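Incident log entry.

Two folding requests arrived from the same account within the same minute. Monitoring flagged them as a possible duplicate submission, but the sequences differ. Recording both here for audit purposes.

Request one:
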Amino acid sequence: MNILAASPFEKRRFRMPRMQERNANSEPLPRSRQLRMDLLHTFEAAARHLSFTRAGEELFLSQSAVSRQVQQLEESIGAALFERRHRALALTEAGRIMRRAVEDSLERLRDAAARVRGNARRQQLTLTCTPGFASFWLIPRLVGFTGAHPEIDVRISATLDLEDLTRGNVDLAVRFVPAAQGQGPMLFEEEVQPMCAPQLLRDSRRPLKTPRDLERHTLLTVELRDEPLTVDWEPWLRVMQLPELQMAHTVRFTQYAEAVAAAVAGQGVVIGRLPLLAELVRQKKLVAPFRSPAASRRGYFVTLAPHAAHNPGARAFADWLVAEAEQAAPSPAARRA
């Protein structure tokens, strides 16, 4: 009978279930022994590169040192984090869970360290808002706030995710929600209507004289999870009594700013959100062929985080947002025009 010695990898694979059983049946270890920060830092680099060698180069460690530290972390939590393949690594399901948690924790630690490390006299604030609001309304005006408040550092998190204001890493939010659900001061309500580049109106082969003419044009739209492609169009289509309108072609984007850029380039028709696109209309980069806005029944609301009561910079920014919105509001005559 030939008895073959198990490879080091096989030994680790066979040892892991026993290790998991021992961890499940034993008393909980102190936290300091369960999760060492240096091991988590090494794991994050290895998971990001999917390479112990490249992680070692980043951390100034040898490949074998990275491998040992990852193995120590695996043994401490009782689960394999990587699949060791021939000249390649892949994260296990446990590895993917740990990577998301470790990346989030390290980012929060970096933010906290930056705040502590900074000059105590400088104030900092973090705002979360949608990418469209940031690109088209906030950023063009932001120099007005930073110029008036040079002592305040501003961080903008532009995302479609709903940030949790109770976690402490975001000071205030501009929420785009149904008007009946808004909390805090409302900056403005939204109106929507089709918009396109001026050159598209000059296309004699495909005129845009009535809403039905849209059937000859390309729809520029944003993909939203579990929503129809025309979800942003629905308030306007409802007012126009065109619920079944089908356009000739569709180009989909993941961000509203991309769809707007395509419209400015003359590639189709986008649903224009006002007042976000008011400046592009003023510059005549976009035009509204039908001049028939419809209320979307949604609005932008400023919401302060609970801890922002102790952050004068956040309160100043919220007041500035409200003042800017009031100043930018069109007059009744302009609305009629």
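Request two (distinct sequence, not a duplicate):
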Amino acid sequence: MPDYDKAYQEALLKARKNFLSPVGVPKSAYKSLLQVYARAILDIDSDLGTKAITEARGKALKKQINKRMIELGQRLGILLDGQSVAAINSAVAGHREGLASLNRLSGLSISTNFAGIQADTQSLMMVRRGLFGAKNYATVISRQITGLASDIDLIINSAITRGVAAERASQEIAAVMVSKDSTGDLQKLISKGRLKKSNLNKALKEGKISPTSYKRARRAFYDSKRIMVTEINTAYREADIQSQYRSPVVKGTKWSLSGRHSVPDICDMYADSDLFNMGNGVYPTANYPGTPHPFCACYPTSVLREVEDWGKPKALAVSPPKLKKDSYSKLFKNQTDNYAKAQVSQANKYLDLAYQVSKKVRAA
């Protein structure tokens, strides 16, 4: 008998690998993120030029650099939107190919309409945010960039006070903007050798730059990366769930745990729980929980129906049972009681959120 499950999963895995790296970071998004930041840094370097930063030049420079930072935020927003759409399309393509593979193996002609999943996914994400009080990630990026712009102002003011050359100020600004890029990829894109963190560290030691301002500023790149990775992965996952719900061969959705959980949390609970008598970690697709934390690399795996059930109507979401802390004493045996309570509380909130979202979107 043909291995239908293997054929379907291989199609989904291929789509995921084509779009995401092994650690769940969108390849094209990360590359574009680096390019957008590098462009902003080089633009600022060009604005500063080679002359000394005097008080007369300082005001005009700050205005120009603030403009550059606003442009950076806008570019990141456009990048985020474009990559989210690409993620959605990639997830849908995996299910289309999965169905095509099963048709080839079975000799049947099973089909469904995946049209409109992009709009449905974006709507679902907005509903989920609205019900759970989450902010729009693009707004968060803009806020971080705005904060970074004001901190760069402080570097310019400090440069005026110290009478340093434009080259050193450029190095300091660049160092702040990429100091959370542990990969070193962004530094490689910046020309002229202007990125020297030693200069920034020296200024910090001398008390020329506020440590509080620096710490706030240096998070901008890291947070932009975290937000973009989380949002795009969420778009991929939501489109995958939507596609599973429409796929006539999918019975349920399994919470597949990523390998990056050194400390047990809400994701381990979802993977271990059998709340709907479908097996550990398996949920009716309409009840599948959303992304519970930033950088979550867990993913939904399709659980297939028996061939004779292909094409039958899908069940709507049902009110989920409540998780009890006592059921997870072994899982959280090395954690504090308050930690365990918080994880159970969050898990119940996201389960209920999935139900509420399904009533508003999926069941509509």
